[in-house]
Automatic annotation (TrEMBL):
<keyword id="KW-0548">Nucleotidyltransferase</keyword>
<dbReference type="Pfam" id="PF00990">
    <property type="entry name" value="GGDEF"/>
</dbReference>
<dbReference type="InterPro" id="IPR000160">
    <property type="entry name" value="GGDEF_dom"/>
</dbReference>
<dbReference type="GO" id="GO:0052621">
    <property type="term" value="F:diguanylate cyclase activity"/>
</dbReference>
<protein>
    <recommendedName>
        <fullName>diguanylate cyclase</fullName>
        <ecNumber>2.7.7.65</ecNumber>
    </recommendedName>
</protein>
<feature type="domain" description="GGDEF">
    <location>
        <begin position="176"/>
        <end position="307"/>
    </location>
</feature>
<dbReference type="InterPro" id="IPR050469">
    <property type="entry name" value="Diguanylate_Cyclase"/>
</dbReference>
<keyword id="KW-0808">Transferase</keyword>
<dbReference type="InterPro" id="IPR043128">
    <property type="entry name" value="Rev_trsase/Diguanyl_cyclase"/>
</dbReference>
<dbReference type="InterPro" id="IPR029787">
    <property type="entry name" value="Nucleotide_cyclase"/>
</dbReference>
Amino acid sequence: MSPPSVADLARATLLALAERQLPATPENYARVYAEMAGKPATASQQPLSHASSNIVAMVRQLVDRIIHRTASLSEELQARNADIRGTVDELGSAEEKELILRLAQAITEKADLIHLSVVQTQNELAATRSTLERMGCELSETRQSLLEDALTGAQNRRGMDALLMREVARVRRHGGRLTVAMIDIDHFKEVNDRFGHDAGDALLAHIGMVARSVLRESDALVRYGGEEFLLILPDADIQGAGFVVDRLREMIARSPLLYDQHPIAITFSCGIACLAEGENGHSLVLRADRALYDAKRAGRNCTHIAN
């Protein structure tokens, strides 16, 4: 029995992931693919970079298979067409009725074989394309999940780094402004102590939902850590960022979290910083963070602007 093709292994891998309800991470792809190929490996043996390279190699093999199959089909069709032309030439010189019928039957059979080859190739290519599309969707979702905080739906620190790098580069190329606002939920520990950590988690998720409702489509919400969030506000100056923060403060005051029939009032402290000439994203965030601590030292539930 011939070994399974790369496309077969890829389809089996995707099916196994779905059946086992495993998240579509590069590590799981690499581990299950190795298992399907008869080379068991644990996830711990597959670092992210190695697992990702395995997925890239798998996609390349699938593409190579498409190229090889279409090239083989082209050669096969050329050979069968030449065969049919030869049979047609024989038919033109044939005089006996039985010979003519046999040659006509042979042409029909050869045409049927061509049709069968084309259909088989179409089916193979459709299956391979489906595999690639599904892998693309799964990997896209995986990439997004790696950049998001599972609790709040906000970007995580890894997502923040990518966003800031892109926005700083945009400002340097085209001009414009970039402002960030670091916010910290006031007395968050007291919420955990009084209502429990589930209430704290619910509060963080609530803040994330309310914050997204006041942000523009171009803005981004980052869970910076613990009860701290960062608002990334492209093309906003200090005044514009202050307006967004005030709007968020107003919306949170109007919609306290209702947990176990108990309304939990929420306030937050905030530090705002605008990108300076020659500054990088890391420095910008640090300045906003220092301004946040100035706001906390000033009594909380207020906003301070970075120098």
